[in-house]
Amino acid sequence: MKAARPIHEWQDNAACKGKTALFFPEPGKNENRTARAKKICRTCPVYEDCLAHVTYNIERFGIWAGMNVKERSKHRAKLGIKLSSVPNGYRTKWESGCRCHICVTEYGE
Q: Do 38 and 49 contact (CB within 8 A), yes or no?
């Protein structure tokens, strides 16, 4: 898996851009929308960036990298990654050895 880049560097190229209702359906409803969103993810030009993002950051809602929140949690567990509830998980990334520019700016010495 590629290293996580700041979201602002890749999100504008995401296939989900402008499709908020499709990618953030109401809980328990719109299974058809969820399936359509996941299908779009499979062909997204920034899928790998999105996957890296949700692997190391907590996104509590929506479809990201073709996964809902429970699937993302299972994905991290399978990789042995535990995230704290720190916004965006960056503190956890720093503690795990990440030295991306965001972590260095926030937590560097």
A: no
- Cβ neighbours for 69, distance < 8 A, ≥ 6 positions apart: 59, 60, 61, 62
By residue count, the chain amounts to: 109
Helix 47-56, helix 31-42: angle, nearest 10: 120
> Which DSSP string do the residues of 1-36 spell out, in sequence order?
-PPPPPGGGTGGG-TTTT-HHHHSPPTT--HHHHHH
pLDDT digits (tens, 9 = 90+) for 29-68: 677 888 999 999 999 999 999 999 999 888 888 999 999 9
Q: What is the DSSP string of 31-93?
A: HHHHHHHHHHHHT-TTHHHHHHHHHHS---SS-BTTB-HHHHHHHHHHHT----SSGGGHHHH
Residue-wise pLDDT for 13-26, tens only, equals 999 999 988 998 87
